[in-house]
Amino acid sequence: MFGILAPCPSRTPADLKPRWMGHFCGLCLELRDDAGHLARLTTNYDTLALSVLVEAQQGDGADGRDAGPCALRGMRRQRIATGDGPRLAATASLLLASAKLRDHVEDGDGIVARPGVAGLAGRTAGRYRSKALAIGESIRLPVEEVMAAVDRQKAVEDACGPGTPLAAVTAPTEQATAELFAHAAVLGGSEDNIGPFRAAGASFGRLAHLLDAAEDFDDDAEQGAWNPLAATGTGMDEARSLARGALADMRAALEAASFVDATMVRLLLDRYARHAVSKTFGSTCATYRRPDRGDYRHRPRDDHDHRRFGRRRGFWGGLCVASALFCSCQMCCANEYHDPWSGQPRQGCCHQCDCCDACECCNCDCCSCCNCGGEDGGCCNCDCSCD
Q1: Is 251 exposed, middle or buried (0-12, 13-18, 19+ CB in 10 A)?
Q2: Chosen domain end from 270, 296, 322
Q3: Which of 33, 93, 326, 367 has the most CB atoms within 10 Å of its CB?
């Protein structure tokens, strides 16, 4: 489970948590039914937005069913989303997983750099791609256009250099997400939303690309991997400004669309998205101290990390531990577990929350734990210097 729209219990109203879980479980089960159990590992938080967009145009008429107890839900029953929305989300999840695996194989980095793993990863990427094609065709998605945009990313990156506009690097991602968002309007039965959804999808693709690049910058520098911010010479302030611009563009596009119920859309594509930007780039709140990441000088590796977290496991040893954690529901339901490979502490996907890292004062979207000033710790008492 990965993506920028990670769930945050403190930012999710109690009445929306079951609805969010319904889309999450609907995507997971769709992946299981169409691509096998292992494909459930490709579940992507961001693609849930596609399922949510389809449902938001249909309201009470959206497809759904009552699912039986599941270990990943603590053996609880759940009302889940079904139909074209989860199928579109599953197609996007498989395409993203396929592209990421293929990139690792071509670059020879990460786990796939180990002997014998590259071939397995390549075959898995091909299988995910073919499954995505089959699911996409079943919902009339122009999946070849989406795949063409994804495939063009590598050529764009190879031609990139200092001075290349960052917009040129993010363009393939924007095109792919724009097509996926636009098709959500078609599946939702509202062709008037195609234009606004396409614009929102392009903005979301740009935002996701920027956040991924900023999050991975230090690791990429340490490993010698390609990073769009380093390759184009883009500074943190410029990247942050572009990310906030993408947020504003996405919000404006969605405001131009029509919905039967936009509650979940606002939760994922506004509240969660704003939190992701603040988490990555820091807050402009005067009482929040932004991490020093100036000039993109990566921090040296802590030689004592292995003493704190134990020795790193190899690929197969980590995979065995990951399987045990997954089957015992710890990756989903545990407040904290240890990473199968590095040993570092992680939070279960249903408990992921980093609420205290940024106040987001400009939007008055603080958690009660934020305590950024004033007796009640709320944003309304902050001395914000928002740009």
Answers
A1: middle
A2: 296
A3: 93
Both structure tokens of 284: 């402009």
Whether residues 228 and 342 share a domain: the answer is: no
Count of C-beta atoms within a 10 Å radius of residue 76? 12
Which of 148, 155, 154, 157 has its CA nearest to residue 178? 148
* CATH number assigned to the domain comprising residue 53: 1.10.600.10
18: in domain: yes
pLDDT at 321: 76
Residues 56 and 264 sit within 8 Å (Cβ to Cβ)? yes
Residue 235 within any structural domain of the chain: yes
Structure tokens at 68: 């039986």
Pairing between strand 337-338 and 64-70?
unpaired
Amino acid at the residue 135:
I
Q: How far apart are CA 226 and CA 221, in angstroms?
A: 8
Q: How many CB atoms lie within 10 A of CB 269?
A: 26
Q: Is the separation of the CB atoms in 311 and 344 below 8 Å?
A: no
CA-nearest of 329, 228, 263 to 12 is: 263
One domain for residues 145 and 186? yes
78 within 8 A of 18, measured Cβ to Cβ: yes
**What is the residue whose two structure tokens read 């996926």?**
180
Residue 199 scores a pLDDT above 80: yes
Q: How many other CB atoms sit within 10 Å of the CB of residue 226?
A: 13
**In this predicted model, what pLDDT tens digit does every residue of 143-187 receive, in sequence order?**
999 999 999 998 999 899 898 999 999 999 999 999 999 999 999
Same domain, residue pair 218 and 318: no
Q: Does residue 307 sit within a domain?
A: no
Angle 194-223/166-187 helices, nearest 10 degrees?
A: 140
Q: If you write DSSP's letter for every residue of 197-225 in order, what string do you get?
A: HHHHHHHHHHHHHHHHHHHHHHHHHHHT-
Kindly report, residue by residue over 200-242, the tens digit of the pLDDT.
Answer: 999 999 999 999 999 988 888 887 888 999 999 998 899 999 9
Q: How many domains does the chain have?
A: 2
Structural domain includes residue 364 = no
Within 8 A by CB and 6+ apart from 61, the residues are none
> Tell me, what amino acid is at 246?
A
* Rounded (5°) CA angle 20-17-32: 40
DSSP 285: B
Domain residues for the domain of 330 are 313-350
